[in-house]
Amino acid sequence: MRETALFAREFLRNPLRTASLIPSSARLVERLVAAVPERGEPVVVELGPGTGPVTEAIQRKLAGRGRHIAVELNERLAMHLVQRFPRVETVTGSAWGLPGILAYRDLHTADVVVSSLPWSAFTGPHGRSLVPKIASVLSESGVYTQFAYAWSHWAPPSRHRLAQLRQAFEEVVASRTVYGNLPPALVYSARRSRVPAGQFPAPAAANLIAS
Known about the structure:
Layout: H1 2-13, H2 15-18, H3 26-32, E1 43-47, H4 53-62, E2 67-72, H5 75-84, E3 89-92, H6 98-104, E4 110-115, H7 124-127, H8 130-137, E5 138-149, H9 156-168, E6 169-174, E7 185-193, E8 209-210
Parallel strand pairs: 1-2, 1-4, 2-3, 4-5
Antiparallel strand pairs: 3-8, 5-7, 6-7
């Protein structure tokens, strides 16, 4: 209930950033994190973790393996994540700076990118380059998962985002709608990036606030 109240409060502060009154349901979270490997030492990047329902599921799957980097623009939510998940490398910043965020940690690629970002994050001058940037940092076998609300699936912003995914990846698959989520949602899984690695070089010094 504490996480739900915090999420709702941040939604009321800025609906465009938080995009929902309540966190994602367990079923939606399960589909979002399905691509996280159960073996090896993967690098998992989480975009827009909010209060941490997806963060918790990723940590459970990793069980101490690999690297888990969570990028949250909202400072209050980021501080909450730092306190709740001390093992996660929480970054207070924009997903748009993803190449720099990885370079700051001496990482060149990610194996999985899990995104709970709202559609508004993919608009404007920076937002239009976000999907290609994500594609450019994925490893050869990397996977990008992104959820979308079913009610807006055919709205122009969602169609534009789907077109971006198909331009940036050879394979884009949509899950069945999770009706138990409020509001109902689905998950896109994108594989085999079309965007060359290094197309968006990291800045010399990343302007980040990290845990």
